[in-house]
Fold:
Amino acid sequence: MPAFRPLKKPFIAILVKRAVLFFFFLSLLVVYLYGIGTAQEFMDRTQLLLLRLSVILGLSLAVSSIYGIILNVWIIVHDRRYHFLGGAGFYIALGILGIAIATLAAFIMVAAGGNRT
Structure:
């Protein structure tokens, strides 16, 4: 039985994937802390800080996901590696999630009147 070598991925694709996962997990953590803080009645300034972090991390997740989409499409077109098509769909889903997190957090900040310093 012949041994198959694992498929080589470009180094930039590995970096982008890990950056997207990093921003995804940080976004989930901050949203989780905001939810726990709402139930535990954190101070208003702490809640505002968590909302601002949610906006920043959601936008970072969306931007890095868009870069991942562009990179995967370029690899698909340039090298004809069609197995990267699933990764592009994954990046699209995470990009939409990042935009949704940022939009919801910004809406909560404005609705609560907490956009002041």
Remarks:
- Helices lie at 11-40, 44-79, 85-111.
- The radius of gyration is 18 Å.
- Residues 12-48+79-117 form one domain.
